Amino acid sequence: MAERFHPDLKRARRMSRQAVSPATLRPYRALLSLGGALTGRGVEKADGPTGQPIWVYRPTVDGPHPALLWIHGGGLVFGHPLTERRFATDVRDELGALVACPTYRFAPEHPYPAALDDAYAALTWLAEQPGVDPDRIAVGGDSAGGGLAAALAIRARDRGGPKIAFQLLHEPMLDEATRHAPPPAPDTLRLWSHGINRWAWDGYLSGVEGDVPATASPARLTDASGLPPAWIGVGTRDLFHGEATAYAARLRDAGIATELHEVDGAYHGFVQTEGSAPVARDYVARMKAALERAWHVT
């Protein structure tokens, strides 16, 4: 019988099945804001065009630099760039890239398209930064951030916006229909459950009338032509495993170069919670290598 979780992930069995709930959302947001204020004192910050702060990790040498817009997770209802500081710093230092981590407005107070508008504004800001190579701009993110990055790629294509060379989607939240489906193996879900997923999507889409657009739920995409190449990573014990693999297949069917990396027995958020585990280190190394290939960094 196969192991329920990857053997490297020692904390999996003790991990909460749901990290946040509607009742704990406000205090959790407050704790993240406090943590950001304390740990982000030395980080450059800029005001995005919609007034949302952007955390900026800028190389010390002159450009032109590749650039990454890296969007934090939190199910569209919470989160903070502080959780992405280590990855952003590593990408800057190891790949010589300018990394921008935007904040964005949260549902349910600010439903679609508020978060996407903030992320798109941050993308346009990034594309205009001095020293950024316009042919080497990537977008990506974790969980809800990965879903927003996929939506950004669609919006930029449809609007003729900043050119995106690559999308890096880490355990992305892509399909609102997952909220209506029976949860797969709910006893192995960690940190993000079917119930909170449904509540988060309901809040984010509360202003949508009629069909859900692909820029809200990228899995609704009918025409993937013209989108940038992608790397998609997800664990097999993740609630988003099915939607991530299906999205990878859709991109491939449209002729979009797409690499899918599935981690057997990994749960949602395993990189954040068990970053020192060999399987997590290997996963992050693969993410960086994908960026390096996309940017042709030598």
Automatic annotation (TrEMBL):
Residues 1-10 have a biased composition (Basic and acidic residues). Residues 1-20 are annotated as: Disordered. Residues 68-271 form the Alpha/beta hydrolase fold-3 domain. InterPro entries: AB_hydrolase_3 (IPR013094), AB_hydrolase_fold (IPR029058), GDXG_lipolytic_enzyme (IPR050300). It holds the Pfam family Abhydrolase_3. Keywords: Hydrolase. One of its GO terms (molecular function) is hydrolase activity. PANTHER family: AB HYDROLASE SUPERFAMILY PROTEIN C4A8.06C, ALPHA_BETA HYDROLASE FOLD-3 DOMAIN-CONTAINING PROTEIN-RELATED. This is Alpha/beta hydrolase fold domain-containing protein. It comes from Maritimibacter harenae.
